[in-house]
């Protein structure tokens, strides 16, 4: 004997209502998702995948709460991989062509290395040593050394000016961390170097010393006491050389903070996102203000240094000793200095 707890008719009615309620609830969830919580890609992109506008992109990058969630969307534009008008279809075509192009470039130098060409073998050895040292404390990169080496080797072979210099791998790791693609990271790194950083690595060092002189002038006007304590004269510029060369990339203990600093530096340094009134020789200003802000963050530590050896230890200590710094406070101070400086130039 079968006991019928619910009649067949009631069961069908219940299923119908339940399905109806399910559709309603799904609509409610979609509405909530679009209004609250993590915003969707549609806030930045049109339905076809093209960028709505660059000002909205700049605001997203400038907003700390949104930026870290959307770097996979914002950095390809920031580093000029995608143009604002590119649709989803255009992006797929670009990625396919980029992969073919990159693999062709890579195979060419790999053949020269396998043939024992002394120039390529020596270059590969130099790059490999630096790749192994760069960000080795970060778990993500432990199994990515080969990809990083391939990118850096390809760049160095096909860009003899400036060629490879120590420190370039520092600027590559944040890009690879965000893009997670060997070929796209290569083209993004090329864009960064061409549009912003290659002059800093020139062997004549004209640009980096111009940046150092500008830093000295601004820092002295902002905090003369601290400037005098460090005694920033021409022969002592090695203290700040690395900071200005690498956009303070090694001066923060958490890698996510490094990404935050770099995207703010780059958005203020590279067109089309840089201020339209910015002159090329002032594109390094935000980096300079970040440097000054770090020094002021550590003001008490620096003023307590009793001799040059103490100062040396401060500037060249490991990143783990920088965990006391507030990245948020440093960037807020740097942005205030930067805004005030721009206002004073009008």
How is this structure best described in words?
The chain has helices spanning 8-35, 54-62, 64-67, 71-78, 88-114, 118-133, 145-158, 168-179, 182-197, 206-222, 224-230, 238-245, 255-267, 285-297, 299-303, 308-316, 327-344. It folds into two domains: 88-197, putative rabgap domain of human tbc1 domain family member 14 like domains (Helicase, Ruva Protein, domain 3, Orthogonal Bundle), CATH 1.10.8; 204-344, Cyclin A, domain 1 (Orthogonal Bundle), CATH 1.10.472. The radius of gyration is 25 Å and the shape is globular. It starts with 7 loop residues before the first helix and ends with a helix. The protein is mainly α and 346 residues long. Helix 5 crosses helix 7 (145-158) and helix 14 (285-297) crosses helix 17. The protein contains 17 helices and no strands. The longest helix is centred in the first third of the chain and has 28 residues, at 8-35.
Could you outline the blueprint of secondary structure elements for this entry?
Layout: H1 8-35, H2 54-62, H3 64-67, H4 71-78, H5 88-114, H6 118-133, H7 145-158, H8 168-179, H9 182-197, H10 206-222, H11 224-230, H12 238-245, H13 255-267, H14 285-297, H15 299-303, H16 308-316, H17 327-344
Helix pairs in contact: 5-7, 5-9, 6-7, 7-9, 8-9, 10-11, 10-12, 10-14, 14-17
Protein name: Rab-GAP TBC domain-containing protein
InterPro entries: Rab-GAP-TBC_dom (IPR000195), Rab-GAP_TBC_sf (IPR035969)
Keywords: GTPase activation
